[in-house]
Design the sequence.
């Protein structure tokens, strides 16, 4: 029989096992809460401290679409005749969530070799010396067919989605609300940490139904965008995006659009300087404060094109560049690929315009520690379902925001909470990604860190920054010379 003491011991052991997976070394770092931020300084986190009434970044519980957008959606859906719209949107959503990038040529070759070996190993080879030429040919064809079938079953068959009229409508139903929620969260962190940044212009690659524009307008409401440049290869998507901006009224011309009217009245949603194009502008000369590429990287047909596009977008940016994808392992790896590529250019290029750093989510420019395990680095946004009104759903997303120039010296480099905070009766467990590029777990208690700091830890949500400085315990420093570096960094 288990005694209550045994049970307690087992629970503690299990909880330790569950919470410490991939998070840090046997010795947890020491966490010192950063209550020392000088409120009179120009520290960009000041606004957070005063406005949000708690450290870290304000979390948006359920992100809602702006009323004007909801009304436009209702109008468009109300006049839609497609009886399969909901079913199509579910199929499309499923496809996009599980979408992977196309295989590289070398990966495809690898799969071909292994399939050939596998099929050949199970095949019985008759003596062909007595066979007619025809029979030998038949045998070889049948073997090749088997290998081809095996390759098709093993290799991921990437296909681009063709966004015609009905697919664009399905996208609107399936993805507008979750995409809006993740972008809104990302933009709001930029607004909170960099209150001086008021984007005047926006460039959106793969703009779809115009979600980035709506999210940016909701976030920086006071800003009047002087120019919004949307690039999407689908004419139907561009038409739908414009219809949403015009309050649910379809444009009467196809192809390129420019809304000419100024957004002067409350009810109007057209913008002066709003452009829709099917192709990237040839010249990189015009630069934008905010450049966005949301849920489009996996639509590009090769890794070379993805990197090329990322570089063009980085050149177009003079402030922030945002990439966001679904929170799957495959999409997260593509985000890391883009992040590392642009950081390598920033490091190794003489072109001053390519210098930059990671603004979020990583508090570092090191290799992502998540690459070493199976869990992707992703975050969560809650949103209201467009179909089942009032139903709250959760969206997982992976993202990176790069900012031109070097990291701010004045902004503290707090670690980011990368999994839900675990609240226990006497302590709080936070799983963090640190400014050294490591996954660490800290335990906050009232006795060690004060009641107020324990409350801060409890209130901090997955995806937010935790206002702590981390350092290594003495014991670890004695044994590992490398860790002396850590102290300096903290
Ligand atoms: C999955 S949707 C994303 C829409 C939008 N960014 C959002 O987050 O809601 C991808 C969009 O990229 C567009 N697209 C795909 N390849 C493109 C390309 N090479 N150039 C421009 N747009 C492209 C598609 O037409 C589609 O509208």
Sequence:
């Amino acid at each position: 029989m288990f005694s209550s003491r045994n049970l307690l011991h087992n629970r503690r052991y299990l909880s330790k096992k569950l919470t410490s997976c991939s998070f840090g070394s046997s010795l947890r770092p020491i966490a010192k809460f950063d209550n020392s931020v000088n409120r009179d300084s120009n520290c960009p986190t000041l606004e957070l401290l005063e406005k949000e009434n708690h450290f870290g970044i304000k979390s948006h519980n359920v992100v809602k679409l702006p009323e004007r957008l909801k009304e436009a959606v209702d109008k468009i859906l109300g006049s839609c005749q497609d009886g399969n719209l909901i079913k199509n949107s579910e199929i499309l959503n499923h496809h996009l969530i599980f979408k992977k990038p196309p295989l590289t040529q070398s990966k495809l070759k690898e799969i071909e070799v292994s399939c050939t070996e596998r099929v050949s190993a199970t095949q019985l080879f008759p003596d062909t010396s007595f066979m007619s030429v025809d029979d030998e040919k038949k045998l070889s064809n049948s073997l090749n067919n088997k290998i081809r079938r095996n390759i098709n079953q093993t290799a991921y068959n990437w296909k681009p989605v063709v966004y015609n009229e009905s697919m664009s409508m399905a996208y609107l139903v399936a993805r507008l609300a979750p995409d809006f929620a993740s972008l809104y969260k990302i933009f709001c962190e930029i607004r909170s940490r960099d209150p001086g940044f008021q984007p005047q212009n926006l460039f959106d690659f793969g703009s779809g139904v115009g979600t980035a524009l709506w999210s940016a307008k909701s976030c920086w409401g006071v800003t009047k965008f002087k120019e919004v440049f949307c690039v999407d290869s689908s004419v139907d998507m561009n038409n739908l995006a414009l219809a949403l901006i015009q309050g649910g009224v379809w444009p009467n011309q196809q192809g390129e659009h420019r809304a000419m009217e100024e957004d002067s009245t409350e009810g109007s949603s057209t913008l002066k300087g709003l452009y829709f194009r099917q192709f990237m502008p040839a010249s990189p000369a015009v630069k934008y404060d905010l450049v966005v590429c949301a849920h489009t990287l996996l639509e590009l047909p090769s890794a070379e094109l993805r990197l090329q596009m990322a570089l063009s977008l980085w050149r177009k940016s003079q402030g922030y560049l945002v990439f966001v994808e679904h929170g799957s392992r495959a999409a997260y790896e593509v985000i890391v690929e883009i992040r590392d590529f642009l950081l390598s250019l920033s490091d190794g290029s003489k072109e001053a315009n390519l210098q930059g750093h990671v603004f979020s989510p990583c508090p570092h420019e090191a290799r992502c520690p998540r690459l070493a395990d199976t869990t992707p680095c992703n975050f969560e946004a809650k949103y209201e379902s467009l179909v089942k009104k009032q139903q709250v759903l959760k969206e997982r997303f992976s993202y990176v925001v790069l900012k031109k120039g070097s990291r701010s010296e004045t902004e503290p480099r707090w670690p980011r909470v990368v999994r839900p905070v675990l609240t226990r009766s006497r302590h709080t467990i936070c799983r963090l990604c640190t400014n050294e590029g490591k996954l660490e777990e800290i335990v906050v208690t009232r006795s060690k860190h004060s009641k107020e700091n324990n409350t801060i830890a409890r209130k901090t949500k997955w995806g937010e920054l935790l206002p702590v400085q981390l350092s290594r315990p003495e014991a670890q420093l004695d044994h590992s010379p490398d860790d002396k570096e850590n102290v300096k960094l903290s």
